[in-house]
Structure formats: structure tokens, C-alpha cells
Amino acid sequence: MNIYVKLAYTFLGLMIVLNWGMLMGATMRKIGARVAGRHGIPFKQPWIDLFKNIGVRTTITHGIMYYIGPVFRLTGGVGLFLFMPAVFSGSPYGIWTNFSFEGDLILILYFQVFGMLGMALGAGEGGHPYAAMGIARGLAQHAAVELPLTLAFLSIAIQYDTFSVYKIVEAQQGGFQNWVLFTNPFAAAAVILAMLGALGHSPFNLVKAPNEILIGPATEYEGSYLGFMQSAGAIIHVMEAMLFMNLVFGGATNWFELILKTFLIYFWSVFVGIVFPRFKIEQSVTWFFKVPLLLGVLAILMYSF
Questions:
Q1: Among candidates 148, 122, 149, which has minimal Cα distance to 134?
Q2: Residues 6+ apart with CB under 8 A from 203
Q3: How many C-beta atoms lie closer than 10 Å to residue 183's C-beta?
Q4: What are 172-224's pLDDT values in tens digits?
Q5: Side-chain half-sphere of 262: how many Cα atoms within 13 Å?
Q6: Domain extents in the chain
Q7: What is the pLDDT of residues 152-174, one digit of tens each?
Q8: Among 157, 69, 84, residue whose Cα is nearest residue 114
């Protein structure tokens, strides 16, 4: 396929993901509000906020890393999209496979960390005392989440003898009975539990910590930088749900299936967040070192012998 055609389809897919992420975020906020007996925001509110923030300029001056942090965050989400197949088409050269390649699962694991570390460096240069609190909490929880998640991913790679996300999705075609959810239940359970921390809703929303340290990074960033973060958040939430969809729930063969599956995956974390209050940091970290870690170890042992 012509590289320019490939780039055009990739950019179009990224725009679909961005707008779906914003709509999904508004829908989840609406659901949370209705559970609390409130009406909630209008569905168009994320776009209003985005355009408003992009048009605002600030005169506050910080170090250069403070300004690069949101860019790192956005780069992490865009990188996940670029090197992960979005829609399975039966060919590794399909228009929605993006730039996925052999071993892209390893690169995806790096991109998951990229945005987190960039935001930590950026917030740390802002000088606000809450920033150091958010960085410590965020990195500690992220390390705890990554351990069972990585073990589960490695188990899936061992199961299918590949680090290619496309080939893992391909192996799950032919019916839901071929999904990793049923062929490798220990890895699937580890992913389903660990992704609660990855998506960052209550009881694992330690960085934002509403009603305790206000709303996290939004206390440090404003204007166009906040708009960058809003765009990055919309993309990353969809891409993380898409990653779990590809590795555990059989991927998607069309955009409708992708939207439905990513919605249900994301809704799982929102449902848990509505039901359970927020953990303390020590509760969150030790929680991931118990059942999710044990499931990850069992998943490795299951396909190692």
C-alpha cells in the first residue's frame, strides 16, 4: 500500500479514536452523575472544553520539561495507536492495521510507560506541593499495575509464540471460544483486574484524588496545555481498552465492534469506580501484589511447561 494512503487512513483512524474517546468519557461521566442522582454534563461538553482550552494562553513560566510533559502524554497515546492494529482485516497490510509489526507488543509496553513518565517529569517541574504527592502515588501504583499486567502479556505471547499483536488477534478469530478469555483464563483474569489500575478510576484514581488534592494535573496545567492533556486522555483511554480488547477479547473486525467492545471494557472500570470508594496508596499497591499478581504467575506457569 502507498505510504501516503497508509498515513491518511492512520490519521483518519486517530481522529475517530479521539472523538470516540471524548464521547465515551462524556457518557461515563453522565452515567456516574445519574447514579448520584444528578443530570450530568451535556454530551458536547468535552468538545466545548477542548476548543476553549486550546484558545487560552498563559503567562506562567516554568522549566521546559513542564511544557513538554503534556506532549509526552499525547505521544504515548498516539504511539499506542500507530503501532497497534485497530481493526482486524485478515491481512497484516490492511488499511486499519496501522504500522503494527513483529514484536510490537514490546514497543506498546514502552509506550504505556512513556506518557506516565513524561507527565511525572512535567508536573515535578511545576513546583506545586501536590505535584510531588501525585507523582509518588502515580509511579508507585503504575509499577504495581505493570507487574501482573506484564506477566499476563508474556503468558499470552508464550501461548501464541509471538509478540505480534496482529498475530495474537488472528489466532483468536473463528468464534468467541477462541478468545484468550477462554483459552488462557488466568492471563485474562489478571488483565481484567490489572486494567482497573491502568484506566485509573476509583478505587485507583490516586493521582487525581478528587476532593483530596483537587483534580490532579489540572491544578498545574491550564489553557492549551490542558487541552493537550484532555486530547491525550481521550486517546489513551480508548487505546488501553483497545489493547485489552486485542489481547483478551478477540480484537475487532469492524469499527462498530471496536466501539462496542472498548465501551464495555471501559465501562467495567467505571462500574467498579462507582461501587467502591478510593483506596489509600498502600491499599492500592498491596491489592495488585495479591490476587492479580498470583493470577499473572499462574498464567506464566500454565504455558511454561
A1: 122
A2: 272, 273, 276, 277, 278, 279, 283, 284
A3: 15
A4: 998 899 999 999 999 999 999 999 988 888 888 877 766 565 555 556 677 77
A5: 29
A6: 3-302
A7: 999 999 999 999 999 999 999 98
A8: 69
